[in-house]
Design brief:
Keywords: Amino-acid biosynthesis, Histidine biosynthesis, Hydrolase, Methionine biosynthesis, Multifunctional enzyme, NADP, One-carbon metabolism, Oxidoreductase, Purine biosynthesis
Oligomer: single chain
Function: Catalyzes the oxidation of 5,10-methylenetetrahydrofolate to 5,10-methenyltetrahydrofolate and then the hydrolysis of 5,10-methenyltetrahydrofolate to 10-formyltetrahydrofolate.
CATH architecture of the largest domain: 3-Layer(aba) Sandwich
Shape: globular
Distance between the termini: 48 Å
EC number: 1.5.1.5, 3.5.4.9
Radius of gyration: 19 Å
Structural class: alpha/beta
Strand content: 15-25%
Bound molecules: nicotinamide-adenine-dinucleotide
Number of strands: 11
Strand order of the largest sheet: 1-11-8-7-5-6
Helix content: 40-55%
Order of helices and strands: EHEHEHEHHHEHEHEEEEHEH
GO biological process, one term: L-histidine biosynthetic process
GO molecular function: methenyltetrahydrofolate cyclohydrolase activity; methylenetetrahydrofolate dehydrogenase (NADP+) activity
CATH class of the largest domain: Alpha Beta
Largest sheet: 6 strands, parallel
């Protein structure tokens, strides 16, 4: 049976360490500050934002909330981002996605100052990450995937074969860049890939971010592999709604060496890296 990777415990340890570092800087500097912008009242977004803000408070990070109505005009949202960009007391800006359909998400993400882009979605940060530059702000979930793999395999992932299912800009592609930076051999699998199972089953580390509940069963997994399940799929079952990963946990656990659960695997790491990125921006800002 596979080891269950406890993402919550790893994220908690990371955040406790951050809290100590933030506390130690308190006497000489202002607290780090994260601005969170939520437009509309999407139920899942509300929960994500609430969790992020709660964590900020626990760590001593000041959170500044901008809750805007669904009808907010793009120009007004861009105006708020400009004022946050110019506010030297703000270290990070997070605009919760998805935005209402009348707002151009790309335009909004591109308006965030790259050195305050704690999600790592701005083209400047995407470019820096793909160039392997040290000052790139990398997206949170992919950083969590690398850390979870290292929690099992140790800090040196050099030479490991990694297969990533999903090629989105927020998970799959940046995860590929980060594993490549760890000297892994990376293969991207997506909806047009032929025989994805066979390719996935060659990987030492299998990252699944397809948004398809229980897509991956044991036939995709090399015996002894580490499986990182990014998927969060809310499905209706006779007993009510349930969160399912992209990985069929009960099947994969028969062959893998280690696997992340959903919930309690990648999810907590995403928030931990949001706080990590905010702290890195803060360090640059306060010198
Ligand atoms: P997306 O829809 O943008 O991309 C999905 C990708 O999966 C696409 O590239 C597509 O080609 C690929 N894909 C779809 N079906 C496939 C199949 N049958 N075989 C191979 N590839 C297939 O999704 P996303 O934004 O990258 O998110 C993926 C999942 O991760 C979602 O369930 C999302 O909710 C979850 N997610 C979780 C976190 C977290 O913190 N845990 C963060 C971000 C996203």
């Amino acid at each position: 049976m596979a080891k269950v990777i406890d993402g919550k415990a790893i994220a908690d340890a990371m955040m406790n360490e951050l809290a100590v570092r933030i506390e130690s800087l308190k006497s000489d500097h202002r607290a780090p500050a994260l601005a969170v912008v939520l437009v509309g009242s999407d139920a899942a977004s509300e929960i994500y934002v609430r969790n992020k803000i709660r964590r900020c408070e626990q760590l001593g990070v000041r959170s500044i909330e901008h809750r805007l109505p669904e009808t907010t005009q793009q120009s007004d949202l861009l105006g708020i981002i400009t004022s946050l960009n110019n506010d030297e007391q703000i270290d990070g800006i997070l605009v919760q996605m998805p935005l209402p359909t009348h707002i151009d998400e790309k335009r909004v993400l591109n308006a965030i100052r790259p050195d305050k882009d704690v999600d790592g979605f701005h083209p400047v940060n995407v470019g820096r990450l793909s160039l392997g530059e040290a000052d790139a702000i990398a997206p949170c979930t992919p950083q969590g995937c690398v850390t979870l793999a290292k929690s099992v395999l140790g800090p040196d992932l050099s030479g490991k074969r990694v297969a990533i299912v999903g090629r989105s800009n927020i998970v799959g592609k940046p995860a590929a860049a980060l594993f490549l930076a760890e000297n892994c051999t990376v293969q991207m699998l997506h909806s047009k890939t032929e025989s994805p199972q066979q390719l996935a089953a060659q990987a030492d580390i299998l990252v699944v971010a397809a948004g398809r509940a229980h897509l991956v069963d044991e036939s995709w997994v090399k015996p002894g592999a580490v499986v990182i399940d990014v998927g969060i799929n809310r499905v209706q079952q006779p007993t009510g709604s349930k969160l399912l990963g992209d990985v069929d946990f009960d099947s994969v656990t028969q062959v893998a060496a280690a696997v992340t659960p959903v919930p309690g695997g990648v999810g907590p790491m995403t928030i931990a890296y949001l706080l990590h990125n905010t702290f890195q921006c803060y360090l640059k800002s306060v010198g």
